[in-house]
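Open question from group meeting: does this chain pack into something compact, or does most of it stay loose? Before anyone orders reagents, we agreed to write out a predicted structure and look at it together. Recording both the input and the output here so the notebook holds the full record.
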Amino acid sequence: MNGNMMIRIFGFILLVLASPVGAQSLNFGSGDSDQPIEVFADEGIEWQQDKLTFLARGNARAVRGEVTVFADELRAYYRQLPQGGTEIRQLDAIGNVRIVTPGETAYGERGVYDVDNAILIISGGKARLVTANEEITAHDQIEYWERKQMAVARGKANAVQGDKKLAADILVAYFKKDKAGKSAIHRVEAFDNVHIDTGKDSATSDRGVYNVNSGIATLSGAVQIGRDGNKLDGCKAELNMNSGVSKLFGCGKSGGGQVGGVFKPRSKK
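Structure tokens returned:
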């Protein structure tokens, strides 16, 4: 490695020393402000001082603490501070993006970190967010809001936990630390064209809320539940995805009113 390359990498590391302080998670711009970023790239690193930009190309990898970003190309945009020094305001990852932490891994074709607002957006190539027990995918994009400990999947979004599947136009997942200190999904909200498959039952609705710990999904708006060709219709339902027990409620006050169903008898041989 020549002297100019060493200077560029050293400059990149110094640049990140002034990054804001926050909790370490998927957001690469957060973490201990004294933690440097180590950058590796097969085709070199370019410092565009007039544009306040760093470029790392060719199998690029950036490591900060427990977070590693892999991509074909990495772009870091920074600002000069009035009191002196610099800080990164945005980090872009382009092509074959993979972001790895001890608790989650995100995949896509493009990743954008808004460091000021602690927001990560992954898009392209059917974006995915994988935790120890769940996987979330989306055709449009997945947003990770670090300060709210929330992920938003947009466009034919799916959440899978074992044989349990939840799909909707938009899924919002909320995280919290488990007993091992790792980030885990504890609640998922689903909006529009909601579909649930428990392995035994299937259900559709306009909106749904799934509690991961209890295994209960609460559905509302044009609810239909099906199993073995039988169908039930109502305005609200509770599905216990662990026990397989479903409760259906009508459209009246306090869940009262009439519900309907179609039961398909078994044919006799």
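Observations to bring back to the group:
The chain has two domains: 1-115, 126-258.
Residues 1-26 have pLDDT under 50 and may be disordered.
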